[in-house]
Amino acid sequence: MELSVRFSPDLWLFLTPRNRRPEVCLPYDGTSSLGHMIESAGVPLTEIGGLAAAGLPVDPSYRPGPGEVVDVRPVRRPQVVPGIRFLLDVHLGTLARRLRLVGLDTAYHNDMDDDALIEQAGAEERVLLTQDRGILRRRSLRRGAYVRGARPDDQFLDVLDRFRPPLAPWTRCTACNGSLAPVGKAEVEDALEPGTRCGYDAFARCLSCGRVYWHGAHGDSLAALVGRALHAVSQP
């Protein structure tokens, strides 16, 4: 028995090359849920925005009948998640720093396994960002999203486009995710190199780890990155 499925082209990257076409026939045992069928084809349910069987909306627990054609649509962008906070897997460290740069609450550890990530994401109500399709298919994961793109620039813009979160640049520590607060030069002067002490007057300090920030040599490139982020979330 086979099931005819029409995946949106936006979801084709999850399918095997032979299934990347307008309509595919998938083997079906007649009893499995539609959600199980879709995930077996390679598409995590976190990336699904709508399902229809014979033209009628259905949910992932639906069991298709003989002859029904199923339509699978991607998550609608922007995906609204009130009070959104992120957790990133070990392979997305650069993306984590960029999300923190624009003020997004972003947890990241470079030594956590899948079980620990899922536990933290659930306990702290964070969206787990990853490129690991296996972890996105775990039943215990409540909120997750696949990050598209091989380059950090593309990944950054993909996350901003998907969620369009409110940004607050320069308010978070890129090292630990703590909040930044303005600090007088005299309070941090002893921790500064002579050139920094002479050339800069405005500073901020992380309230969690104590790291000190100022508009240094990389300030212009970071400002350009922030500018692109603000532009991305302002698009209709």
Descriptive report:
Helices cover 28% and strands 20% of the residues. The chain is of the alpha/beta class and 236 residues long. The longest helix is centred in the C-terminal third of the chain and has 15 residues. The protein is elongated, with a radius of gyration of 22 Å.
Name its key features:
4-stranded parallel sheet; alpha/beta; 236 residues; 5-stranded mixed sheet; single chain; 8 helices
Short description:
This protein has 236 residues and is an alpha/beta fold. It is built from eight helices and twelve strands.
The ordered string of helix (H) and strand (E) elements is EEHEEEEHEHEHEHEHHEEH
Radius of gyration: 22 Å
User: What is the number of helical segments per DSSP (H or I, 4+ residues)?
Assistant: 8
Tally of DSSP β-strands:
12
The oligomerization state is single chain
Strand percentage lies at 15-25%
Largest sheet: 5 strands, mixed
Distance between the termini: 44 Å
- Biggest sheet: strands side by side, in what order? 2-1-5-3-4
Spans of at least 5 consecutive residues whose pLDDT stays below 50 are none
Backbone structural class: alpha/beta
Range of helix content: 25-40%
Shape: elongated
- What's the rounded overall pLDDT mean? 94
